[in-house]
Amino acid sequence: MLLKLELQSNPEALCLVRATVERAAEVLQFHDAETRAIVRSVDEALANVMRHAYGGRPGLPIEMSCRRLEHGGQNAAQGGIEILLVDKGVPVKPSALKGRSFDEIRPGGLGLHFIRQSMDEVEFSRKKGKNLLRMVKYLSPTPQAAASEGE
Length: 151
Known about the structure:
Largest sheet: 5 strands, antiparallel
Distance between the termini: 35 Å
CATH architecture: 2-Layer Sandwich
Helix content: 25-40%
Oligomer: single chain
Strand content: 25-35%
């Protein structure tokens, strides 16, 4: 376990979570663009929990844990990060999590598209009365490492 945070559904906490996730991604040696994508994905996911699962009600529990994925695991030749968000909000039906169509020109509704595009794995589930969102991002091979593999 790299870190575990217990926070409440308060949008003011998002800036602290963004800074923490950013630092965790840097420690794991993600490139700047990947770090920004991870931070935005976590930020969007937490905002969705607050807005949709908790209906904008403040003070409700959210757990976030980050785990380092070790090198050499299945699909993780370069290692990576696994982020798990857990809330006790309204049950989420994974089949309903489609986001809106790109053809609809209006604000909002594209966060889920962004999360799925930015992260390598995105899984929703419900266990023991809790919503779980698992997001994984694998480290991209460094140019130097990729070149040595081709030799």
